Amino acid sequence: MKLFKITSPTVAQVPIIISVPHAGTRLPSELKKHYKKGMRRHLDDTDWFVHRLYEFAPSLGITLIKANLSRWVIDLNRSPESIPLYSDDRLITPNTPTTDFYGNPLYKSKELEPDKDEVARRLQGYYRPYHQQVAQLLEERKKTFGQVLLWDAHSIRHRVSTIQKDPFPDMILGNNDERTAHPKLIRTALKGLNSGRFEVHHNHPFKGGHITRSFGKPENGVHALQLEMNKILYMDDNELTYNEDRASKVQKVLRTTLEGLIKTMEHSL
Known about the structure:
By secondary structure, this protein is of the alpha/beta class. It has helices spanning 29-32, 37-41, 50-53, 116-145, 183-193, 210-215, 244-267; strands at 4-7, 16-20, 63-67, 148-153, 171-174, 200-202, 222-229.
Protein backbone atom coordinates (compact mmCIF):
# COMPACT_ATOMS: atom_id res chain seq x y z
CA MET A 1 0.00 0.00 0.00
CA LYS A 2 1.30 3.43 -0.95
CA LEU A 3 1.32 5.60 2.14
CA PHE A 4 1.30 8.92 0.32
CA LYS A 5 1.07 10.52 -3.09
CA ILE A 6 3.49 13.19 -4.29
CA THR A 7 2.37 15.56 -7.05
CA SER A 8 5.34 17.25 -8.70
CA PRO A 9 5.33 20.75 -10.16
CA THR A 10 4.36 21.18 -13.81
CA VAL A 11 6.58 24.29 -14.10
CA ALA A 12 9.89 25.29 -12.51
CA GLN A 13 10.07 24.44 -8.81
CA VAL A 14 9.56 27.06 -6.12
CA PRO A 15 10.60 26.78 -2.46
CA ILE A 16 7.17 25.70 -1.14
CA ILE A 17 5.90 22.24 -0.17
CA ILE A 18 2.22 21.61 0.62
CA SER A 19 1.44 18.79 3.04
CA VAL A 20 -2.06 17.28 3.30
CA PRO A 21 -1.87 14.78 6.17
CA HIS A 22 -5.56 14.24 7.01
CA ALA A 23 -7.37 13.77 3.67
CA GLY A 24 -6.55 10.05 3.45
CA THR A 25 -9.38 7.50 3.58
CA ARG A 26 -7.63 4.14 3.35
CA LEU A 27 -7.54 1.52 6.09
CA PRO A 28 -4.94 -1.28 5.90
CA SER A 29 -6.60 -4.61 5.09
CA GLU A 30 -5.32 -6.21 8.30
CA LEU A 31 -6.98 -3.47 10.37
CA LYS A 32 -10.13 -2.67 8.45
CA LYS A 33 -12.39 -5.17 10.19
CA HIS A 34 -11.25 -3.96 13.61
CA TYR A 35 -13.20 -0.73 13.16
CA LYS A 36 -16.93 -0.47 13.68
CA LYS A 37 -18.80 -0.85 10.42
CA GLY A 38 -20.74 2.37 10.94
CA MET A 39 -17.54 4.29 11.56
CA ARG A 40 -15.87 2.80 8.47
CA ARG A 41 -18.80 3.88 6.30
CA HIS A 42 -17.94 7.53 6.80
CA LEU A 43 -14.55 8.43 8.26
CA ASP A 44 -15.95 11.48 9.99
CA ASP A 45 -12.74 13.22 11.07
CA THR A 46 -11.30 13.22 7.55
CA ASP A 47 -10.24 16.53 5.99
CA TRP A 48 -12.45 15.75 3.02
CA PHE A 49 -11.24 16.91 -0.42
CA VAL A 50 -8.66 19.37 0.93
CA HIS A 51 -6.15 18.18 -1.68
CA ARG A 52 -8.62 19.13 -4.43
CA LEU A 53 -8.52 22.73 -3.28
CA TYR A 54 -4.80 22.80 -4.04
CA GLU A 55 -4.94 21.13 -7.46
CA PHE A 56 -3.64 24.35 -8.99
CA ALA A 57 -0.48 24.37 -6.83
CA PRO A 58 1.77 22.31 -9.16
CA SER A 59 1.12 24.91 -11.88
CA LEU A 60 2.81 27.44 -9.57
CA GLY A 61 5.87 25.23 -9.08
CA ILE A 62 4.73 23.81 -5.74
CA THR A 63 5.16 20.16 -4.74
CA LEU A 64 2.22 18.56 -2.92
CA ILE A 65 2.34 15.48 -0.66
CA LYS A 66 -0.92 13.86 0.48
CA ALA A 67 -1.23 11.01 2.97
CA ASN A 68 -3.38 8.07 1.83
CA LEU A 69 -4.15 6.49 5.20
CA SER A 70 -7.00 7.64 7.41
CA ARG A 71 -5.97 9.63 10.47
CA TRP A 72 -7.84 6.98 12.48
CA VAL A 73 -5.02 4.58 11.63
CA ILE A 74 -2.25 7.04 12.40
CA ASP A 75 -2.48 10.77 12.98
CA LEU A 76 0.51 12.33 11.27
CA ASN A 77 -0.11 15.68 12.95
CA ARG A 78 0.50 14.41 16.49
CA SER A 79 3.88 13.81 18.09
CA PRO A 80 5.26 10.24 18.34
CA GLU A 81 4.71 10.51 22.09
CA SER A 82 1.17 11.95 21.66
CA ILE A 83 2.10 15.01 23.70
CA PRO A 84 -1.04 17.21 23.91
CA LEU A 85 -0.92 20.24 21.63
CA TYR A 86 -3.04 22.37 23.95
CA SER A 87 -3.50 22.70 27.68
CA ASP A 88 -7.17 23.71 27.77
CA ASP A 89 -10.08 21.32 28.23
CA ARG A 90 -10.65 20.47 24.54
CA LEU A 91 -10.66 16.85 23.40
CA ILE A 92 -7.28 16.00 21.89
CA THR A 93 -6.90 12.68 20.11
CA PRO A 94 -3.49 10.89 20.19
CA ASN A 95 -1.45 9.64 17.25
CA THR A 96 -3.40 6.37 17.27
CA PRO A 97 -6.93 7.46 18.22
CA THR A 98 -9.50 5.10 19.69
CA THR A 99 -12.38 7.59 19.46
CA ASP A 100 -13.52 10.22 17.01
CA PHE A 101 -13.62 13.95 17.87
CA TYR A 102 -16.90 13.42 19.69
CA GLY A 103 -15.58 10.63 21.88
CA ASN A 104 -17.34 7.83 19.99
CA PRO A 105 -15.39 4.52 19.99
CA LEU A 106 -13.81 3.59 16.66
CA TYR A 107 -13.10 -0.07 17.37
CA LYS A 108 -15.48 -3.00 17.76
CA SER A 109 -14.05 -3.85 21.17
CA LYS A 110 -11.41 -2.73 23.65
CA GLU A 111 -9.35 -5.80 22.74
CA LEU A 112 -8.98 -4.52 19.18
CA GLU A 113 -7.70 -1.10 20.20
CA PRO A 114 -3.98 -0.59 19.55
CA ASP A 115 -1.73 -1.56 22.45
CA LYS A 116 1.80 -0.26 23.02
CA ASP A 117 3.35 -2.65 20.49
CA GLU A 118 0.75 -1.84 17.85
CA VAL A 119 1.28 1.87 18.35
CA ALA A 120 5.02 1.34 17.86
CA ARG A 121 4.36 -0.70 14.71
CA ARG A 122 2.18 2.01 13.20
CA LEU A 123 4.68 4.72 14.07
CA GLN A 124 7.44 2.79 12.36
CA GLY A 125 5.47 1.57 9.35
CA TYR A 126 3.04 4.41 8.65
CA TYR A 127 4.07 7.57 10.51
CA ARG A 128 7.81 7.88 10.07
CA PRO A 129 7.84 7.32 6.27
CA TYR A 130 5.59 10.35 5.77
CA HIS A 131 7.63 12.59 8.04
CA GLN A 132 10.86 11.39 6.47
CA GLN A 133 9.53 12.15 3.00
CA VAL A 134 8.42 15.65 4.03
CA ALA A 135 11.86 16.23 5.58
CA GLN A 136 13.53 15.07 2.36
CA LEU A 137 11.42 17.38 0.19
CA LEU A 138 12.17 20.32 2.47
CA GLU A 139 15.88 19.59 2.48
CA GLU A 140 15.95 19.37 -1.32
CA ARG A 141 14.24 22.73 -1.73
CA LYS A 142 16.36 24.35 0.96
CA LYS A 143 19.50 23.11 -0.78
CA THR A 144 18.29 24.66 -4.04
CA PHE A 145 16.85 27.93 -2.75
CA GLY A 146 18.42 28.47 0.67
CA GLN A 147 14.96 28.80 2.28
CA VAL A 148 11.82 26.67 2.13
CA LEU A 149 8.22 26.95 3.33
CA LEU A 150 5.99 24.06 4.41
CA TRP A 151 2.26 24.81 4.09
CA ASP A 152 0.24 22.27 6.08
CA ALA A 153 -3.33 22.10 4.75
CA HIS A 154 -6.30 21.10 6.92
CA SER A 155 -10.04 21.47 7.34
CA ILE A 156 -12.52 20.91 10.16
CA ARG A 157 -16.25 20.67 10.70
CA HIS A 158 -18.21 23.88 11.09
CA ARG A 159 -18.77 23.00 14.73
CA VAL A 160 -17.08 20.48 17.05
CA SER A 161 -18.44 20.93 20.56
CA THR A 162 -15.69 18.88 22.19
CA ILE A 163 -13.11 21.43 20.97
CA GLN A 164 -15.09 24.63 21.41
CA LYS A 165 -18.75 25.52 21.81
CA ASP A 166 -18.91 28.17 19.10
CA PRO A 167 -18.66 27.49 15.35
CA PHE A 168 -15.17 27.75 13.92
CA PRO A 169 -14.11 30.81 11.90
CA ASP A 170 -13.66 30.41 8.16
CA MET A 171 -9.87 30.16 8.18
CA ILE A 172 -7.25 29.90 10.90
CA LEU A 173 -3.57 30.51 10.19
CA GLY A 174 -1.34 28.75 12.71
CA ASN A 175 2.36 29.24 13.39
CA ASN A 176 2.68 28.47 17.11
CA ASP A 177 2.45 32.11 18.12
CA GLU A 178 4.72 33.23 15.27
CA ARG A 179 7.55 30.83 16.14
CA THR A 180 7.46 28.62 13.04
CA ALA A 181 7.89 31.14 10.21
CA HIS A 182 9.51 34.47 9.41
CA PRO A 183 7.29 37.47 10.22
CA LYS A 184 7.29 38.52 6.55
CA LEU A 185 5.83 35.17 5.53
CA ILE A 186 3.19 35.40 8.24
CA ARG A 187 2.21 38.89 7.12
CA THR A 188 2.08 37.80 3.50
CA ALA A 189 -0.08 34.79 4.32
CA LEU A 190 -2.53 36.87 6.37
CA LYS A 191 -2.74 39.50 3.63
CA GLY A 192 -3.52 36.84 1.04
CA LEU A 193 -6.09 35.04 3.14
CA ASN A 194 -7.80 38.34 3.92
CA SER A 195 -8.06 39.18 0.21
CA GLY A 196 -11.36 37.30 0.09
CA ARG A 197 -14.52 37.66 2.12
CA PHE A 198 -13.59 35.08 4.71
CA GLU A 199 -13.20 35.50 8.44
CA VAL A 200 -9.53 34.85 9.18
CA HIS A 201 -8.17 34.14 12.65
CA HIS A 202 -4.51 33.91 13.64
CA ASN A 203 -3.34 31.20 16.08
CA HIS A 204 -6.79 30.82 17.61
CA PRO A 205 -8.27 28.36 18.22
CA PHE A 206 -5.47 26.44 16.46
CA LYS A 207 -1.76 27.30 16.58
CA GLY A 208 -0.57 24.61 14.18
CA GLY A 209 -0.11 20.94 14.96
CA HIS A 210 2.95 18.75 15.34
CA ILE A 211 3.93 19.01 11.66
CA THR A 212 4.04 22.79 11.77
CA ARG A 213 5.75 22.92 15.15
CA SER A 214 8.34 20.23 14.43
CA PHE A 215 9.38 21.34 10.94
CA GLY A 216 9.09 25.10 11.37
CA LYS A 217 12.61 26.27 12.24
CA PRO A 218 12.96 29.70 10.60
CA GLU A 219 16.39 30.20 12.13
CA ASN A 220 17.49 27.22 10.00
CA GLY A 221 15.76 28.40 6.84
CA VAL A 222 12.74 26.10 7.17
CA HIS A 223 9.42 27.87 7.68
CA ALA A 224 6.03 26.28 8.38
CA LEU A 225 2.45 27.54 8.37
CA GLN A 226 -0.77 25.63 8.97
CA LEU A 227 -4.08 26.61 7.43
CA GLU A 228 -7.18 25.21 9.11
CA MET A 229 -10.35 25.76 7.11
CA ASN A 230 -14.06 25.46 7.85
CA LYS A 231 -15.47 22.65 5.71
CA ILE A 232 -18.58 24.55 4.69
CA LEU A 233 -16.35 26.98 2.79
CA TYR A 234 -15.93 24.38 0.06
CA MET A 235 -18.50 21.67 0.84
CA ASP A 236 -22.29 21.64 1.07
CA ASP A 237 -23.83 22.46 4.43
CA ASN A 238 -24.11 18.72 5.15
CA GLU A 239 -20.29 18.57 5.03
CA LEU A 240 -20.45 15.49 2.84
CA THR A 241 -20.29 16.80 -0.72
CA TYR A 242 -17.71 18.91 -2.53
CA ASN A 243 -19.25 22.16 -3.73
CA GLU A 244 -17.56 23.41 -6.89
CA ASP A 245 -18.93 26.95 -6.65
CA ARG A 246 -17.86 27.42 -3.03
CA ALA A 247 -14.52 25.73 -3.65
CA SER A 248 -13.69 28.03 -6.56
CA LYS A 249 -13.96 31.06 -4.27
CA VAL A 250 -11.64 29.41 -1.76
CA GLN A 251 -9.17 28.45 -4.47
CA LYS A 252 -8.97 32.05 -5.66
CA VAL A 253 -7.88 33.15 -2.19
CA LEU A 254 -5.47 30.24 -1.81
CA ARG A 255 -3.86 31.01 -5.17
CA THR A 256 -3.45 34.68 -4.26
CA THR A 257 -1.93 33.69 -0.93
CA LEU A 258 0.52 31.18 -2.35
CA GLU A 259 1.55 33.49 -5.19
CA GLY A 260 2.31 36.14 -2.58
CA LEU A 261 4.31 33.66 -0.52
CA ILE A 262 6.34 32.65 -3.58
CA LYS A 263 7.29 36.29 -4.19
CA THR A 264 8.17 36.79 -0.54
CA MET A 265 10.30 33.65 -0.49
CA GLU A 266 12.13 34.65 -3.65
CA HIS A 267 12.68 38.37 -3.05
CA SER A 268 12.14 39.42 0.56
CA LEU A 269 13.84 36.90 2.85
